[in-house]
User: Which sequence fits this backbone?
């Protein structure tokens, strides 16, 4: 039986150039706008009265880790604590309530709660002395572990420093308990027990619920390994998945990529065969560098607080260029995490080489683009690189004031997140959340993008006010911009005729609010292909 839904009596934000007061969708696709849609009310299966509120295209999240976000809900609640004591109390509470858990885990603690983001294993030993504890910081590039976890992983004062990570040491040369980047904390995570089937399905269900609340109908999972794929597929087959996603296979540096690249075509085929309705898998993810707040992002000039350090590039420039070229030759889309200006330049060089060799870089994406050297700004437009920003980060919160700015110095700090510069310079821009690093709610990020202010209104004129963008530009980056990134702009990204009826309903007319209040807008309905999945 044909399903016809009509939304009317409000504002339909079709795209940044077009609006209407009504819309109709039949069998999951938009078929009419305005008065033509209103005439269909009599035959509609479902009628939604917008009551003056705004209906918009469902959001796309151009860079996130939805499975990680779902997994967070399974373990200790370490996110959002304002003091170290509160954080430790929450870990102890979970450990006491789960005495049979082999490991005590938690994801998302605030790294600014300790000087330089360095946490001591002995603080965890005091509350859980008999079991291994591993907590991952909200940046997902740093882990904090207790002594038992270090022992299980075999990390001692004699362990060589990994080339793609850092084992923070005490003054006496013993491991402190803070591990930065995969090369270091991977030694711990390799020892963790695998999730069981029920946990994997629960993780996907939790991710779907979180995205429904935010109005997200498509997401780029920017870090997928074979066990993550099992979680996606089991969750989808169990009916727990209520948004669409593209999966990006993790490329590992130091020559390891050559072996794993051989497995990606078969993994992609598995996705295409087992869940083509909701999942695709045509992207490969590279980490060019780390993060600025941890001092691991690759920078052209040394860090102010460590004049001998230029960060930790995860790849040599030559190997990144070679691996990206092979990615493109295989028909995959390259998606590169690049945060420091040296990491950004290496990524741009890799894309430029792929274009020279293959005539294309397969719709290349650079995620984060936090610090870009002025000489590299025009290269985004010239090379057709999609700049994927996480707009929620463009504010002066603790990670900036306590960790990043002291490391960069003021001149470089004031060049962070050049969203408006790239957008108005003709570059392609998409938005994402990097959830669960930070909130999955797009309207929170949009609220920051248009004000560059914290929730406390700081600074009054916005941080680097020249980089503020308009509400319509921000909505476009979170909808059509992500569809362009996905290579699916003919299918979704706006509510034009023939597009998928992926839609989000807000609790108000979003264009009637002061800019500062936009971040407080709530989603009251989310539809995937015309089917309501939230609200």
Assistant:
């Amino acid at each position: 039986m044909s399903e016809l839904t009509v939304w009317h009596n409000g504002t339909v934000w079709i795209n940044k150039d077009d609006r209407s007061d009504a819309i109709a969708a039949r069998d999951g696709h938009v078929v009419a706008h305005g008065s033509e849609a209103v005439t269909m009310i009599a035959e509609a299966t479902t009628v939604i009265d917008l009551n003056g509120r705004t209906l918009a295209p469902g959001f796309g999240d151009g860079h996130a880790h939805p499975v990680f976000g779902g997994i967070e809900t399974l373990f200790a609640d370490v996110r959002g604590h304002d003091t170290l004591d509160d954080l430790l109390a929450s870990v102890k509470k979970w450990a006491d309530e789960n005495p049979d858990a082999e490991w005590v885990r938690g994801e998302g603690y605030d790294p600014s709660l300790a000087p330089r983001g360095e946490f001591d294993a002995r603080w965890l030993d005091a509350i859980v002395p008999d079991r291994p504890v591993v907590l991952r910081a909200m940046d997902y590039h740093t882990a904090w572990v207790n002594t038992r976890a270090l022992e299980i992983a075999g990390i001692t004062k004699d362990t060589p420093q990994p080339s793609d990570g850092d084992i923070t040491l005490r003054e006496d040369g013993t491991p402190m308990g803070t591990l930065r980047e995969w090369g270091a904390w991977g030694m711990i995570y390799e020892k963790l027990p695998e999730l069981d089937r029920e946990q994997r399905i629960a993780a996907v269900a939790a991710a779907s619920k979180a995205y429904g609340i935010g109005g997200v109908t498509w997401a780029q999972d920017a870090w997928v390994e074979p066990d993550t794929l099992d979680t996606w597929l089991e969750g989808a087959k169990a009916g727990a998945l209520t948004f669409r996603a593209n999966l990006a296979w993790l490329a590992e540096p130091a020559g390891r990529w050559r072996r794993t690249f051989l497995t990606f075509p078969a993994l992609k085929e598995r996705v295409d065969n087992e869940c083509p309705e909701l999942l695709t898998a045509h992207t490969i993810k590279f980490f060019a560098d780390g993060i600025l707040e941890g001092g691991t992002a690759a920078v052209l000039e040394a860090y102010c607080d460590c004049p001998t350090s230029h960060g930790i590039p995860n790849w040599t420039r030559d190997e990144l260029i070679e691996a990206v070229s092979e990615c493109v030759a295989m028909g995959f889309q390259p998606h590169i995490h690049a945060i420091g200006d040296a990491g950004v330049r290496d990524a741009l060089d890799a894309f430029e080489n792929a274009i020279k060799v293959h005539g294309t870089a397969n719709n290349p994406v650079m995620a984060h683009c936090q610090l870009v050297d002025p000489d590299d700004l025009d290269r985004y437009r010239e090379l057709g690189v999609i700049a994927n920003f996480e707009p929620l980060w463009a504010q002066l919160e603790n990670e900036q004031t306590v960790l990043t700015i002291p490391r960069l110095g003021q001149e470089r700090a004031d060049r962070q997140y050049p969203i408006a510069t790239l957008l108005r310079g003709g570059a392609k821009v998409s938005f994402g959340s990097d959830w669960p690093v930070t909130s999955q709610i797009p309207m929170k990020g949009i609220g920051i993008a248009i004000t560059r202010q914290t929730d406390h209104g700081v600074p009054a004129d916005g941080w680097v006010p020249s980089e503020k963008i308009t509400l319509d530009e921000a909505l476009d980056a979170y909808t059509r911009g992500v569809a362009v990134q996905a290579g699916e702009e003919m299918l979704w990204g706006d509510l034009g005729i023939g597009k998928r009826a992926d839609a989000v309903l807000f609790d108000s007319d979003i264009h009637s609010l002061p800019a500062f209040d936009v971040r407080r807008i709530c989603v009251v309905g989310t539809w995937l292909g015309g089917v309501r999945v939230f609200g």
Observations:
- The first helix runs from residue 34 to 38.
